[in-house]
User: What shape does this take?
Amino acid sequence: MINNMRIQNFKGWKDTGKIQMSPLTVFFGENSSGKSSIGQFLMMLKQSVESSDRRIVFYTGNEDTAVDLGLPSDIIFNQDWNNPIIFSYDWTLEKEIQLEDSLHKTRFASKHINFGGEVKITDEKSQLLEVKAFEYTFDISGRDQIKIGLQKKEASGGTKKSYELVYDKYDFIRTRGRVWDITSPVRFYGFPDEAVAYYQNANFLKNINLYHESLFAGIYYLGPLRKQAKRLYNWNGNIPDSVGYLGQDAIQAILAAEDENRMINLSYRGHRKPFMAIIAEMLKKMSLIEDFRIERISKKRQDYDVKVKTKGSMNWVDIPDVGMGVSQVLPVIVELFYAPAGSIIIMEQPELHLHPNAQAGLADVIIDAIHAREDYEERRIQLIIETHSEHFLRRLQRRMAEDVLKNDEFSAYFVNSDKYPATLEKLQVDIFGNIDNWPKNFFGDIAGDIFAQTDAALDKRIKEELNE
Assistant: This one.
């Protein structure tokens, strides 16, 4: 789980400040205020980590990727190429990372990693990005923190870039005869092979790279616009990694989970239920349908149709015939329970096309998801959500007051775009669900509209009486 992060000089953000993350972290704000950029930044890093080009620093994407952010200058604050992107985040590991000093026969263990990096465009014309520096910090039980990183050397003639290893509270011993420079890092975060060979006791640096890559391998993204429902779905037995960032693999994910006999229980003492039954239960909980099923058309075909039974009806109908709300929220619900244990799920506007009561119901589904267990083991997922829904927030506040959602399970932020540059302000939510620093016109001026309506109605009534 990501515990904290901070981003500077990325898109509309001069500085987000420290963002304290929870199992459920929600961002609110006006359109184009920058709230989506935080999730996009993480997805850009994921795309970079998964790029086949080890030399690429940031892969901003293309039309086929989850996010497409354009040219390097497009992702820089004020499009000023002199501004370096500075960022940091820390995360907790499921298992301890072992920092083993084979030379001194010592071993250090840490379950907490902090990473900070600085990336800059080399010049305006080339639009090339380079790593200025990065640093890892490890919390070691019973001793000081260990810090290890790479830093770009100042140019001393020639065009070849070189880096040096920087460290604190750890003693690296040079390998005899190694006189070459350390070349560019692996992407934005990785120690190159030369750094390992340069020192006698640096073998664990490769493991640090792998732990970083493992973090981003566990991040999944679902965008604001999902694929429309189809009449027929084809499934050949494959097991998708996720529902896809357009939700296009949601039905295949359900079938794969059923085929693997995945069982979910919604609480510590709750009964285990088949995956598809959980999906149907969540849709019903949101008052969207009465029942849900997926059926194979024929044993000779790999095609399936999705049927739902709507409220007050005895008939089963195809999912495209029940409106956009069900088909748009289905990938959201599937991803919440399908993603592997320990996953980080980023979602934009999961409430899209839902009526207010269903938006509130979605908040309950999300609470169920962060508490859910699979085969009685905690799933420990983390959700990062960008939303516009007041009804969603109000339900979360209510569940906090009812002690269904714990105070340390929820963080909420509001983008204050009245200031320039915009600021990210943490909502101070107490254990009763009250927000102590409720921003002005957070969800519009509802009270002002009511007063204005009352005044207008009174004026109209007076004019009608005068004309009688």
Notes: The longest strand covers residues 85-101. The mean pLDDT is 90. The first helix runs from residue 35 to 50. Residues 94 and 150 are 26 Å apart (CA to CA).
